[in-house]
């Protein structure tokens, strides 16, 4: 496109935009400016987060999280050893586990319900392996194993645990934070890992804190972990934690087909729909825009009371203002234009106050005013008689001011 055509197009677009912007009301312009600023701020936050946010983040015990308490490193370790890793963002159900001989990790669940308990039991009867951790899993274990067969939780921490696995020597050493408690009683299961050091529980009884208990349910295997901190990113590389974590998944040798599922719905992940499926920054922007629109509508709408007038009613001019204006205009030359202005204004207002039709002949208006004593002679002289010079300006101005004086009740004049 030639340069002069581009220039014309630019000018046309600029003029159209200027006309559109000028036709908008001031409040609507302010609303658009606020929305534009909100959009710019959101884009800036996203760019800054991508460029400068190098700090690991995410919920604790989630395989999505690369924070110190997350399990992203464990998920990558399983993938490296040939496991097919899946992450479940919906509540656990049997139909979600499509492969046989799968390992399902339910790490420190927050919101397991009866449906999840039933799904775990069905998976165990189908040759699957369930690894469940934390004191929050105690109710699920009691449902699956029975109240008398489930391990009993103890607040005593594990710290360092010993794991004896057939064919592996020496025994594995597993390091935990020792703050999540332990199993004080193993129930009907078999102990996989326990602390070699005895500790006293809340009753003062010496126990060996148990880290892991294994029970066979149906055709499957249920592994119950009291302290899942050895799975975390910050501890996975310490001691023999990685080896024990691989053993829990199904083996430390590279596999070609075993699957590992992480239940992420218990950590708040899910398929949000509708309004909650919108990103949080967008929800805030929409909410602020909605409030701004409601405020603008409220400012445009009628308040409680009588309907709003189309034009604002102005108060009558004050007598002092009229006299001051007359004094100012009296200094101008010629005086006659000022006198004519005051007389026309006064005659127009007197016509309205006497109830006569607008545009009544000045002679008829003067005759009507002379018939009644409510209109002073000085007013009649200033409005209808020829006056000249500065005295004439003051006479016409005072007569006009009298006509605009609301305190004089001219509506009592009995017109015929």
| Overall residue-averaged pLDDT value | 78
- CATH architecture verdict of the domain at 72-263: 3-Layer(aba) Sandwich
Strand line-up in the sheet with most strands: 1-13-2-3-12-11-8-5-6
Summarize the helix and strand pattern as letters.
HHHEEHEHEEEEEEEEEHEHHHHHH
- Overall structural class, as computed from helix and strand content, comes to alpha/beta
What does this structure look like?
- By secondary structure, this protein is α/β, with parallel strands linked by helices.
- Among the domains are: 72-263, Class I glutamine amidotransferase (GATase) domain (Rossmann fold); 319-412, no CATH class.
- The protein is 41% helix and 14% strand.
- It is built from 12 helices and 13 strands.
- It has helices at residues 3-23, 26-52, 72-80, 114-124, 138-145, 241-249, 280-300, 319-330, 335-353, 362-370, 377-384, 389-403; strands at 84-88, 103-106, 129-133, 152-154, 160-163, 172-175, 182-185, 190-194, 199-200, 206-207, 210-217, 220-225, 259-263.
- Strand 11 and strand 12 (220-225) form a beta hairpin.
- The model is unreliable at 410-416 (pLDDT under 50).
């Amino acid at each position: 496109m030639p340069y002069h055509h581009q220039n014309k197009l630019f000018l046309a677009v600029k003029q159209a935009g200027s006309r559109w912007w000028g036709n908008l009301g001031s409040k609507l312009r302010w609303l658009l400016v606020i929305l534009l600023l909100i959009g710019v701020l959101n884009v800036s936050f996203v760019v800054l987060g991508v460029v400068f946010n190098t700090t690991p983040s995410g919920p604790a015990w989630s395989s999505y999280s690369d924070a110190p308490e997350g399990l992203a490193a464990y998920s990558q370790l399983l993938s490296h050893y040939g496991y097919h890793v899946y992450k479940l963002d919906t509540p656990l159900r049997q139909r979600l586990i499509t492969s046989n001989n799968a390992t399902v990790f339910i790490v420190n669940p927050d919101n397991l319900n009866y449906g999840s308990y039933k799904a775990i039991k069905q998976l165990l009867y189908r040759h699957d392996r369930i690894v469940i951790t934390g004191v929050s899993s105690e109710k699920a274990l009691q449902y699956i194993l029975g109240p008398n067969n489930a391990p009993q939780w103890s607040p005593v921490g594990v710290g360092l645990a010993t794991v004896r696995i057939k064919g592996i020597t020496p025994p594995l050493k597993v390091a935990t934070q020792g703050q999540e408690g332990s199993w004080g009683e193993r129930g009907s299961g078999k102990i996989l890992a326990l602390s070699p050091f005895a500790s006293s529980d809340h009753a003062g009884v010496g126990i060996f804190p148990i880290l892991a208990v294994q029970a066979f349910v149906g055709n499957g295997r249920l592994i119950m972990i009291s302290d899942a901190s050895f799975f975390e990113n910050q501890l996975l590389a310490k001691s023999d934690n990685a080896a024990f974590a691989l053993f829990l998944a199904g083996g430390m040798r590279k596999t070609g087909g075993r699957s590992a599922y992480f239940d992420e719905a218990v950590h708040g992940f899910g398929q949000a729909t509708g309004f909650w499926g919108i990103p949080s920054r967008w929800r805030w922007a929409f909410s602020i825009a909605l409030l701004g629109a409601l405020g603008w509508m409220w400012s445009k709408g009628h308040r409680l009371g009588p309907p709003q007038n189309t034009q604002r009613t102005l108060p009558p001019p004050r007598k002092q203002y009229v006299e001051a204006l007359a004094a100012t205009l009296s200094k101008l030359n010629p005086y006659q234009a000022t006198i004519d202005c005051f007389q026309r204004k006064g005659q127009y207002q007197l016509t309205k106050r006497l109830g006569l039709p607008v545009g009544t002949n000045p002679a008829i208006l003067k005759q009507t005013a002379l018939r009644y004593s409510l209109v002073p002679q000085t007013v009649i002289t200033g409005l209808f008689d020829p006056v000249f010079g500065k005295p004439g300006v003051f006479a016409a101005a005072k007569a006009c001011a009298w006509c605009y004086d609301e305190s004089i009740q001219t509506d009592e004049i009995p017109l015929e």
